[in-house]
Amino acid sequence: MATMAEAPRVGLFITCLIDMFRPSVGFAAIKLLEDAGCQVHVPVAQTCCGQTAWNANDKADTREIAQEVIQNFEGFDYIITPSKPCSIMLRSNYLTLFDGDAKWAQRVSDFTQKTYELTVFLEEVLGIDTLDETIAKRADILTSNDLGELMEISKNLKRQGIQKEIRHVCEVLAGMTDSPSIGAR
User: What is the mean pLDDT of residues 94-111?
Assistant: First the structure.
């Protein structure tokens, strides 16, 4: 772990949704962490947290994904993700997944203890109570709840055979068009 005099080395876990649909959220997370004094690294070999396989009860694929994630992020002081669902997968479900596995138990424990959702890390680890308004404006972070809601809207539209709206939802996710916030009436 980095000392207070050293900038913490942060491995940023970019979620598959952010990677595919809203890379600007990843860049905003990098900016927030750098502005908070962190050295930010984004391992290029990362893929997904494995939540889809976990939800499908596919433990073998989930374990394989988790092992790759852990190996890609072991060298960092902290693992940060701008997604609450992914942070739960990384912090809690990985522990359950490897429960009783003597070979992986310590590695998983070490990994989960240094993994945080972005805002939790900024507040609880770095002690940043409020972000400077200009930093928050530059961040333009779409929350994981917004992403989930947009994906649900997209699924419902697809079921109804409405392709134009699906494209619009994807463009909003990718930041290609202005749109009212989700839930705005």
Answer: 94
> Which of 122, 139, 156 is where one domain is finished?
139
Q: Indicate whether 170 belongs to any domain.
A: yes
Please answer whether residues 90 and 112 qualify as being in contact, where contact means their C-beta atoms are separated by less than 8 angstroms. yes
Is 153 found in the same domain as 107? no
pLDDT of 161 reads: 61
Q: Give me the pLDDT at residue 116, please.
A: 95
Is 95 part of a structural domain of the chain? yes
19, amino acid identity = D
What does the longest C-alpha to C-alpha distance in the chain come to? 56
Backbone angles phi, psi at 116, to 5 degrees: -140, 150
Q: Which residues of 113-140 are buried (b: 16+ CB within 10 A; e: fewer)?
A: ebbbbbbebbeebeebeebeeeeeeebe
Residue located via tokens 């690294």: 41
Closest CA to 47 of 64, 24, 22: 64
Q: Is this structure's pTM higher than 0.90?
A: no
Separation between Cα atoms, residue 136 and residue 157, nearest integer Å = 32
